[in-house]
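Researcher: Predict the fold of Lipid II isoglutaminyl synthase (glutamine-hydrolyzing) subunit MurT.
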Amino acid sequence: MLGIWIGKFILWVLRLRGRDATSLPGKVALRISPGLIRRFGGQVKRVIAVTGTNGKTTTTSLLASMVAEREPVVTNHKGANLAQGIATAFLRSCSWTGRLPASTAVLEIDEATLPAVAPDLPIGVIVVTNVFRDQLDRYGELDGTLAKLLEGIRKTQATLVLNGDDPLCRYLGLRSSRKVIYYGMARDTARSPRREQMRDGQFCLMCGRPLRYDGFWYGQLGLYRCEGCDFVRPHPVFQGELQGGFLRFTEEGLPDLLLDLPVSGLYNAYNVLAAASAARALGLTSAAIHGGLRAYRPPEGRMQRFDLEAPVTLHLIKNPTGCDSVLDTVVSDGRDKVVVIGVNDLAADGRDVSWLWDADFELLAEDPRLTAVVTTGFRAHDMALRLKYAGLPESRIRVEPDLEAALQEGLSQSSATGAAMHALVTYTLLHPAARWLSERRDEHEPQGALYRTSVS
Ligand SMILES: [Zn+2]
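Model: Structure tokens for Lipid II isoglutaminyl synthase (glutamine-hydrolyzing) subunit MurT follow.
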């Protein structure tokens, strides 16, 4: 009980100071009451866990938003997916006596945290979005991530909702001996790879022979089959097909749903597909799925838009595959553009920035509408070097280690040339960049500023 009081008290103090805490209250509370998560887990009827490398924050928010159409829900919205973040999510929802107002929790859980918290939570469904190489510092290897996920899955009796287009998810499904429901994109929407895009899972994890692909969506997601054994992409129960700003969601025996995509791009279409599939697995109605999508607001840094002197889009980059999909979004923006890339190497960013060499920055060099790039952050020079090797002329690269100066520079260049601006930043630069851009917006929109003044 003391842990709950202290956790709630910290939350309350931070809120008074205008800060929205996502981890600290849970961290302190867990230190005082190590059994806190088990205690909350005992109060809810079911937990839906969302894990995987990319897209879990968006998928969690989307799914929580859909479940909320039916019943109250506890969730950790902001990507705080370690034990302290999960504890904080419960602390935010519970009363001072520790009572939760909801019997369902939709929780984003880090792959390495899953085995630790699985025994304490009644996890009924586990969604795995994909398994890519990520955060080298923490896991070292992909095999380690897969082992952690399997260990976590085996500590539950959960039904798995897996991305069937990902051979590594398929492997988890085959190795876990749990009930599995696969989702995937419609077969005929796969494209041939423009160049060698596979990094992970080129080899069959069952027999070690190479995987053959008949088509790709992105990264290792595609129509794979093993040349040496019967390992093959499963036929998905839930299928998605991108149609403009919509995702056609198909489930055998039921009429198709045309789902609004609150955020654009194939990458996000997968998140919507994952959330809708999990929602269906939970028995949610089409109305709840539609309603959840309408109510959803993209979190900070997931293609967050700012209308300033030039239109600005802010993206989070954190690993090669996620970065590739951001780069894909940037180059498919048909406007002239200035790109600001911010790379830090603090613990939360990942100390090892060698992943920059795995990401497909060559895409930028090939974009004729790209007018300039400003690199920033502690590793601004590494980033500039990477771009040089990608084939971008040095004359178009500017290094400005100070974030605010770099954003200012990008904005001036964009507005002077009528270009759009894209800012791509790693984790610890995300909040500072979002804050600077929001403040800038407030200055830029006098009406908005007046309105805010008059209501405060
Ligand atoms: Zn095989």
